[in-house]
Specification:
With 206 residues, this protein is mostly helical. The chain has helices spanning 6-9, 12-37, 49-79, 86-111, 113-121, 140-162, 164-173, 175-198. The protein is flat and about 55 Å long.
């Protein structure tokens, strides 16, 4: 939020957005940790009425978190310092585009009945730690790229601002164009992985 001018940073609506983000994240993490401690799934768990309801609330909380990320990107664009830094361009593009793509891919994951059935029956055939299917297509890699675009593109912007190689690329293309180039790489990768999932091709075959 330091990219936003102080007057807007101190506005009540900005504070409410920050409070809402913290509360949504607190709920998400708390429920995930509690379910993990009990040896139960937090996601795609419809086995009991309370777990079904809490999973629905998780979806609302996740939507709200992504919406807040989108709004922060808009705020930096409209009310941020107009310093033409790579960090500013990376934050604006990463937060806005990453949020939109995250909602698209998450929407497919949470509403595709075939995917949900596979999620519940193929848990043994996944890549360790990542949980991506090894025997069929999976939306999670595309979701992963889209979500982490929100963090990585601002970091790339900082690299363009401060690193020697980043400065050379900035001088060659301009910081805005260089940031847009990296954004297109993320977008292309995300949609390639999404297409792979739609065709039922696993990210890594077992």
């Amino acid at each position: 939020m330091k990219l936003v001018i102080p007057k807007m940073r101190e506005a009540k609506r900005i504070k409410w957005v920050a409070y809402a983000a913290v509360m949504s994240l607190w709920f998400e993490l708390s429920y995930i940790i509690i379910q993990a401690a009990k040896g139960r799934r937090s996601h795609f768990n419809f086995e009991t009425p309370i777990e079904n309801a809490l999973y629905g609330l998780m979806g609302i909380g996740a939507f709200f978190l992504v919406l807040i990320s989108f709004l922060v990107g808009i705020m930096i664009w409209r009310y941020g310092y107009k310093d033409h830094s790579g960090l500013r361009y990376g934050a604006i593009i990463g937060l806005i585009v990453g949020s939109v793509l995250t909602l698209i891919f998450a929407g497919f994951m949470s509403t595709d009945p075939t995917y949900i059935k596979q999620k519940l029956t193929l848990e043994a055939s996944v890549i360790p730690y990542l949980g991506w299917f090894k025997v069929t297509g999976d939306y999670k890699p595309a979701h992963f790229v889209a979500t982490h675009m929100m963090q990585l593109l601002p970091l790339i912007g900082m690299w363009l601002d401060k690193a020697k190689l980043g400065n050379k690329l900035s001088n060659l293309m301009g910081k805005k164009n260089a940031t847009v180039l990296f954004a297109f790489i993320f977008i292309a990768l995300a949609f390639a992985l999404f297409a792979q999932a739609l065709y039922g091709i696993p990210f890594i075959k077992s």
